Amino acid sequence: MRNEEMLLIPGPTPVVDSIYDALASETRSHTDARFAAIYRSAIDKTRTMLKTDGEVFVIAGSGTVAMEMALVNTVAAGEKILVISQGYFGDRFIKLGEAFGIEVDVLQSEWGKQVNPDDVEQRLVKGKFKAVTITHADTSTGVAANLDVLVPIIKKHGALVILDGVCATAAMEEDMSRTYGDSHHKIDVVLTGSQKAIGVPPGLAIVAFNKTALDARAKIERVPAYYCDIYNWIPIMNDPQKYFATPPVNLIYAYDEGMRLVLDEGMENRYKRHEAFGKAVRAALAVYGMTALAKEDAAAATLSCILYPEGMDDAAFRASLAEKGLIVAGALAHLAGKAFRIGHMGNTTEEMLEKAVLMIGDAMNELGYSVDPAKAVDCFKELAYVQVT
Ligand SMILES: *Cc1c(COP(=O)(O)O)cnc(C)c1O
């Protein structure tokens, strides 16, 4: 690997050499047939990954653009959404809704916990909601959403399910062909970005709409957007030689390679690997007296928010890790200084995480704690290595 540091933050995540190579391929015209073939392949692979028969969009933008695209094409001004928020990124939908004159109702969990499904049901009974937003893995808290429970409740009430997969897609199951109970109870929109569990550099917004979501778009007379109006992009996604706005040619090369790696590994293998990584990292860090903010049954497979033991100096700890070549992220909002976040997703490997566990133990010992890195590494190894099919 060309990387000099281990970038174990909740995105961007480590980029492998074959993706860098793709990124460095010759920049061609965005209407060149050779580029269009790669763009088409990248879109097709995305469709395969999400198992959707709807429309897929892969455009320049960050995950936030994907969130905006998902919302403005399904919900009109004056209509109502319910935001299920399990942290900072869930809350982002409140701001987005407000920016577009959408009425927003919110169910917020205590940080580290999941929203109670009974509360979702009660809220949905009360009003007519066009859509409900769910953050699959909230990057601020490391809390995962329980789709098995939430999707059936939401669909029963006739609302669209908009799933923010920015920190989950390609690592946690998001199967748009899957029915949750009834035959028409499916996830309607999945949105994501290139730089997290997909493992490609930042810069791409990826969104998939199923037929129900496309019907919702058809009913909106005027979408309050231009770049984010899916009707401007459908012709390009179906024929990438057409022009609407210049696609990020080199990033599309990189994304196509990233998606090749995703599909080669296989979705089931990826889900299992990430599940094992999450469990192994959290168990290993528990050996150091560090506990995850989320309880194990609510914890995301892709990243963990880890509470420091008493008295830990956040800045000194992360500086010591950086010196060793490991970059982790600080915690957000009221947890800043009290926790750190570690990503374990995308093209991150067992070897990297094993090294990270060791480095974290070493850093703690340097800061005056007395922990056993060898024991933590053993604990990690026992859980991290999964049998792949
Ligand atoms: C990172 C993240 C976003 C925002 O993505 P950007 O690429 O930073 O715009 C949104 N939702 C979740 C769950 C995220 O993890």
Automatic annotation (TrEMBL):
GO terms for biological process: glycine biosynthetic process, by transamination of glyoxylate. It comes from the Bacteria. Residues 23-328 form the Aminotransferase class V domain. GO terms for molecular function: alanine-glyoxylate transaminase activity; L-serine-pyruvate transaminase activity. Keywords: Aminotransferase, Pyridoxal phosphate, Transferase. Substrate binds at residue 341. The modification N6-(pyridoxal phosphate)lysine is found at residue 196. The keyword Manganese does not apply. InterPro entries: Aminotrans_V_dom, Aminotrans_V_PyrdxlP_BS, PyrdxlP-dep_Trfase, PyrdxlP-dep_Trfase_major, PyrdxlP-dep_Trfase_small, SP_NH2Trfase/AEP_transaminase. Its cofactor is pyridoxal 5'-phosphate. Belongs to the class-V pyridoxal-phosphate-dependent aminotransferase family. This is Alanine--glyoxylate aminotransferase family protein.
